[in-house]
Amino acid sequence: MDFDTLDIARLRGLAGNKWRRYGDEVLPAWVADMDFLQAAPIRDYVSHAGATGDLGYPFGESAGPLKELFAERAMRRYGWSVDTEHVDLIIDVVQGLYLGLDIYCEPGGGAIIPTPIYPYFLTAAEENGRRAIANPLVLDGTRFVYDMDALEASIDDTTQVLMVCNPHNPTGRVFERKELEALAEVALRHDLTVIADEIFADVVYEGHQYIPFATLSPEIAARTVTFHSATKAFNLGGIRIAVAVFGSDALHDRFKNVPRRSLGGHNCLGIPLTRIAWQQCDDWLAGVVSYLQGNRDFVTEFLARRMPAVGYVAPEATFFAWMDCRELDLPGGPYEYFLEHAKVGLSDGVPFGEAGKGFARVNFATPRKLLEQILERMADSIEKNE
Ligand SMILES: Cc1ncc(COP(=O)(O)O)c(C=O)c1O
Fold it and tell me: In CATH terms, is domain 8-40+282-385 a member of 3.40.190.10?
């Protein structure tokens, strides 16, 4: 497991969106792919499938064992008892967010969304004709937390869904039990369905613990739909597969009403690679999380030293640094500014909701040498603006 070697020619040769979008002058640090090679068993399987021409329609029944594997892993890693009868495989988590709002929220109904937020939460509401009720997280001095009074005040008769993102993208928060319990209490009192995106469950740093929302109580489980995937933790964003866990027959039955083929079908790599990731790659996962934690600390130290005007709270999970650049007052906003003047491609804070204006998100899942170049370019460009 070597996460530290920088092979820029390999990265520049990749066909994926991350390295293709901006061309050769720019260092990309945006979409949530890592710049590391995947674990060897995963790469071996892909080579094998290619070498044997095993790229036909997948054998559907292989999905069954994957559900069991998910349930076994959920118990082992998170103490979460999952009924495999309540698990479905979908194409990706974003599909789950879109379907979830379509199914569990009536047209015109409201969904509470903690902002800033991974942009598809907001578009899922807007494009489905549901109301996105932004609940901005607030900085309590050391970390982003829910404003429970504001959340409560934003609820009306049309509010039907509470959307949860834990670990949270982009702030990197891993919400603690008492924070989740406060949300759960509101969901119960207002009869809200909970849609929980927990895709970053396995990228959590020392001192923090991911708690599946559905484990808070049986009553909460019964109103929660959770989305998971191996794709973030094992760097498999292109394989297009995710897991949906329904906390009750009632929730699952409503999902089953969606015509099967309108959900799409899995590609031939998604199921086997997820199985291999979960069965054979936990050592790789531990290694990458440890390396990412080192990168997180590197960012923290670098910003304090070279970019002190950037507001920043070290993430507890994910591989994102959420940078508050408002004080820098960069012409065109941080995204445009850093792209043009630093030749660094970040994620613009604006699509993350009102609360993201003046922010940029840096993906630090890259060899440290490259991370350093990215940050150096940013720091130099800020000095030029002063
Ligand atoms: C919070 C969150 N949810 C969902 C996704 C996308 O997942 P998928 O590719 O399964 O749609 C991402 C990708 O970065 C994410 O950060």
Answer: no
